[in-house]
Design goal:
FAD/NAD(P)-binding domain, FAD/NAD-binding_dom, 21 strands, Enolase-like, domain 1, flavoprotein, flavin adenine dinucleotide binding, alpha/beta, 13 helices, about 25% strand
């Protein structure tokens, strides 16, 4: 695939840049181009901007999680006992009160950012009718109006939609996808989650923290296979401690509503013959690129079987002036990464040099407990034949871990056996997604495990885990860290330092 930037500007284009989709990738792409003095428009078919991220995905789910952590008293149970909670009889309305407030604020922030950068927002459904031409159809109930616009550069940032099995009778209350959670009328007593990916694990752990009995089903033998296996083993242990049942290596055959002595319920029948009956089923088997109505063929493009668009290293599609960013191009499907992809796409399109380090993009998985990783894991390094050693710290060894009541958290460093260069950081526990950035910064500058030995961290903090893990790793080597003293020149008495 070509790496050349798109063709030079043509005077009669309606816009320099047209962005289809207003999620994180689309927002950042539009604002970057606007700051370069380009005429930019963002097309969004929803009634409100922000895409899945703000309206049904990242922001509501993480706020939902935070509300659960607070109201259930989950973080304090290690100190005050398993029965501790801030509020008894937590309702969906309790959880959504906080969620709605945060969503409204984030929507206002995005609207303000686009407005002050003079990015035009268009509420319409977009589809290609040519390589540079997009038809915008009115979606505001004002008839079948439409207009055609042209753009020198087009960025496709339409995101994804939840996959649905056509044989399953979804009803939005008993048999749901993740988008339906914000519309629940009551919390279930029992839940079956089908799918052990990121979204499935996140919501399964949230419900379990509320005391809901959860069964998690996945046909793969492990949860979150792209994560370091030791970390996912810890996650599985803690989920089971929260009374969750894991049915791994199991395939679902039938999902059907049933009526029993407890009322309207849902039965899940597995290929192995097992049956699981619960109040609610959450179906979370991946997401599909929302490309089915874009008419990609008119622009010379196509999507794969899951609706995803292929791009090169600059996020160009097969048509060099059309870029695609965010979840629609597939893994890792993270809001933070989508933002960076949008920025890089606009910079490349308009000839602005940039630098980015995709291999150091961090992953944040907001299960309970949360997980965050950066760099390589043990399985990847073993497969590549790279000699390495590890160092670990348990939160229970750190004063801050005792203070916050998290005695199960773990921080794991992976470093090169010979050069001691830091190759990966993997964390599970409170604050993991914040704590990871220390390791990310050290890796960006090619730092070694000795950096953590020679550095002083505030006390008491979770950051001390880095120092403890570094000492653990060096002790495994059986050799002392590089601690050569740096001699300072002598100073006269009274000299100001």
């Amino acid at each position: 695939m070509t790496l050349t930037p798109p063709a030079a500007s043509v005077p009669d284009f309606t816009y320099d840049l047209l962005v289809i989709g207003s999620g994180p990738g689309g927002q950042r792409s539009a604002i970057q181009a606007a700051k370069l003095g380009k005429k930019v428009a963002v097309v969004e078919k929803r009634a409100v901007i922000g895409g899945v991220c703000i309206n049904t995905g990242t922001i509501p789910s993480k706020t939902f999680r935070e509300a659960i952590m607070h109201l259930s008293g989950y973080n304090e149970r290690g100190l005050y006992g398993a029965s501790y909670s801030v509020k008894d009889d937590i309702t969906v309305q309790d959880l959504l009160l906080r969620t709605s407030s945060v969503m409204a604020h984030e929507l206002d922030v995005v609207r303000n950012q686009l407005h002050r950068n003079r990015v035009e927002s268009i509420n319409a459904e977009a589809s290609f009718i040519g390589p540079h031409t997009v038809r915008l159809r009115d979606v505001r109930g004002r008839g079948e109006g439409w207009r055609d616009v042209t753009a020198r550069v087009i960025v496709v940032a339409v995101g994804t939609r939840a996959a649905r099995d056509p044989s399953i009778p979804f009803d939005g209350q008993r048999i749901i996808i993740s988008d339906d959670i914000l519309d629940l009328r009551e919390l279930p007593r029992t839940v079956t989650v089908i799918g052990g990916g990121v979204i499935g694990c996140e919501y399964a752990s949230m419900f379990a923290a509320l005391g809901v009995r959860v069964t998690l089903i996945d046909k793969r033998p492990r949860l979150l296979e792209f994560v370091d296996h030791e970390i996912t083993d810890i996650l599985a242990y803690q989920l089971r401690q929260n009374r969750m049942t894991l049915r791994l290596g199991e395939a679902v055959r039938v999902v059907e509503p049933v009526q029993d002595r407890l009322g309207e319920r849902v039965r899940v029948t597995l290929a192995s013959g097992k049956e699981i009956v619960s109040d609610m089923v959450l179906y979370s088997i991946g997401r599909l690129g929302a490309t089915e109505r874009l008419n990609l063929e008119a622009a010379g493009l196509s999507a794969d079987g899951r609706g995803r668009i292929s791009v090169n290293g600059h996020y160009q599609t097969a048509a060099p002036h059309i870029y695609a960013v965010g979840d629609v191009i597939g893994f890792p499907s993270l809001a933070s990464v989508s933002m960076e992809q949008g920025r890089l796409a606009s910079c490349h399109a308009f000839g602005v040099p940039t630098q980015s380090v995709p291999e150091l993009f961090p992953y944040g998985i907001y299960t309970i407990p949360e997980i965050s990783t950066v760099g390589k894991n043990e399985e990847e390094l073993t497969e590549a034949g790279v000699p390495y050693e590890i160092g670990k710290a348990q939160y229970r060894e750190i004063a801050r871990g005792q203070i916050i009541g998290d005695e199960q958290g773990t921080l794991k460093l992976i470093f090169h056996l010979e050069t001691r260069e830091l190759l990966g950081v993997h964390i599970i526990g409170s604050g993991a997604s914040e704590l990871i950035h220390i390791g990310q910064a050290v890796m960006a500058f090619g730092g070694t495990v000795d950096y953590f030995v020679n550095t002083v961290f505030n006390y008491p903090t979770l950051a001390e885990c880095y120092k403890t893990a570094a000492f653990d790793g060096i002790n495994r080597l059986g050799s002392a860290p590089a601690l050569e003293p740096k001699l300072e020149p002598a100073r006269e008495v009274g000299e100001v330092v």
